[in-house]
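Objective 1b. Sequence-to-structure analysis of Threonine dehydrogenase.
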Amino acid sequence: MKALVYQGPEDLVYRTVSPPHVAHGAQVVHIQSSGICGSDMHAYLGHDERRPPPLILGHEVSGVTDGGRRVTVNPLVGCGVCRACQSGRDNLCPNRQIISMPPREGGFAEAVALPPDNLIDIPDTLSFDQAALAEPIACGWHAVRLAREAGGSAPALVIGGGTIGVGAALCLAAQGVDEITLVEPSVTRRDYLARHVGIDALDAAALHDTPRFNLVVDAVGIAATRAMASSHVRPGGVIAHIGLGSAEGGLDIRRMTLQEITFIGTYTYTAADFRATVAAMGEGRLGRLDWTETRPLAEGARAFSDIRAGTVAAPKIILKPQLPEGD
């Protein structure tokens, strides 16, 4: 089969590879759509030691099984028997695997193999491109659920207008938070969100100095955005931290302590969160989900380069194996 293979920093090659290994009980998904994630970009730039080359990246996948089922893929595979898995927190399984990290190849290919429980049927009302958004949006669904359980409420601030931030904003609305502000530094991205998603994002400079948000979602995760979250959350408020941009700096620990601010690190999603996200998408509770740009998988290297250059307005590029080059 054909696949886009990561061979080293900023080096992706579209070439023939062996078909996916099908372990006992696994099912093959013939991929129709696969989204480029921020973690794929980190690996592409050589910043993710968990994804050593050569490797097929990509974990935001939808497609068709050998039996003809239209599915989206939960890429996170737990052991099923540990305390985390048994308690419904399979995203914290110490033996978890995810496609696009060894030993599992990813979804920038014509096919991938996964256990049946990781394949979620999608309704005919969802296109494959829309269904590929289930994985990143599920990250927001999980974060919002945890933040609300910790007492987070409106008004809410979302930092970052990429797919994770946009998904988090949509999940906030779907879960009953009715006053949401999203900040995004790129003028091009803010204009795109206004035209295609109905979100009037702001530049961070437009925020008031007075902390006024009961719930803040950091969908970027760098020192500057953590500092922004620390300064704009109200006393007694909640910060949900999804972004994995950098590991250190930014949090005002003294203010968080004196003002009893709750900080929650949120990693991916549980299987239940993933299924709840797909259900909400199918019911139309997360909007039109048409804020993607589609390109052939064969031109994936150029897509990564364009994202790197900051020339992509849409929050998400979807790569499609069946789309001919030049389309």
